[in-house]
Amino acid sequence: MSKLKISEIFFSLQGEGPLIGYPTLFIRLFGCNLNCSWCDTPYAKGNNPHKEVEISEILSFWEKNFNSLPFITITGGEPLIQNPVYNLMNAFLEKNCIVVLETNGSISLNRVPKEVIKVMDVKTPSSNMDRHNLYENFKFLGKKDAVKFVIKDEKDFEFSLDIIDKFFLTYYTQVFLSPAHPFLDPKNLAEWILKTKKPLRFQIQLHKVVGIK
Ligand code: SF4
């Protein structure tokens, strides 16, 4: 097998997306190809500390400590910039795990195994990274997968509605809208969503509400 650059491995509740609330082993891969203005994991990129770990070591760690738990989330940074991540996903699928991939949406999902639950960002204008959105990726998403928009202001919200309508997202995948913490009052986003009367899902990061990692 091969080595991956890892920022951290930790155990917590899944705070967002289709599997919200489940106890989950998180594998945060190091490095990112984007530079969002409101990045909430700056420690997972740049010159920050990280370790190189063999995939076999990650599997052994899970087997020793968490083998009663099927939920694995691979996050970042941006996991897809490291080629061995495909081996990691396949290795956990072979152990009958339920694998979630959180990705920033700028890299093709064409090599991601279809069994993996994909949670893909669409970067909004306030991130300054919206030019990197790879809309072709929508064709790899289905009902078990999700698209996530982080909303900082009304301009982001209008942008998100346009994308959702243009690509008919709510018809074939799940759509989540999250307030950019701490910039947007969650209540404002809740009210904007209700006004649309569309099947959009408001989400607030559960782990932050509960006060855990
Ligand atoms: S894609 Fe994620 S990790 Fe990368 S800069 Fe944006 S928020 Fe940070």
TrEMBL record:
Single Gene Ontology MF annotation: 4 iron, 4 sulfur cluster binding
Residues the entry annotates as binding substrate: 13-15, 28, 75
Span of domain Radical SAM core: 19-213
Cofactor(s) the protein needs: [4Fe-4S] cluster; Mg(2+); S-adenosyl-L-methionine
Catalysis performed (reactions): 6-carboxy-5,6,7,8-tetrahydropterin + H(+) = 7-carboxy-7-carbaguanine + NH4(+)
Keywords from the named record: 4Fe-4S, Iron, Iron-sulfur, Lyase, Magnesium, Metal-binding, Queuosine biosynthesis, S-adenosyl-L-methionine
Pathway: Purine metabolism; 7-cyano-7-deazaguanine biosynthesis
Enzyme class: lyase
InterPro entries according to UniProt: 7-CO-7-deazaguanine_synth-like, Aldolase_TIM, rSAM, rSAM_sf
Binding site for S-adenosyl-L-methionine: 38-40, 77
Domain of life: Bacteria
Binding locations of [4Fe-4S] cluster: 32, 36, 39
EC number per UniProt: 4.3.99.3
Pfam families associated with the record: Radical_SAM
Cofactor, free-text remark: Binds 1 [4Fe-4S] cluster. The cluster is coordinated with 3 cysteines and an exchangeable S-adenosyl-L-methionine. Binds 1 S-adenosyl-L-methionine per subunit.
Binding site for Mg(2+): 41
Protein function: Catalyzes the complex heterocyclic radical-mediated conversion of 6-carboxy-5,6,7,8-tetrahydropterin (CPH4) to 7-carboxy-7-deazaguanine (CDG), a step common to the biosynthetic pathways of all 7-deazapurine-containing compounds.
Family to which the UniProt record says this protein belongs: Belongs to the radical SAM superfamily. 7-carboxy-7-deazaguanine synthase family.
Assembly notes: Homodimer.
Protein's recorded name: 7-carboxy-7-deazaguanine synthase
Gene field: queE
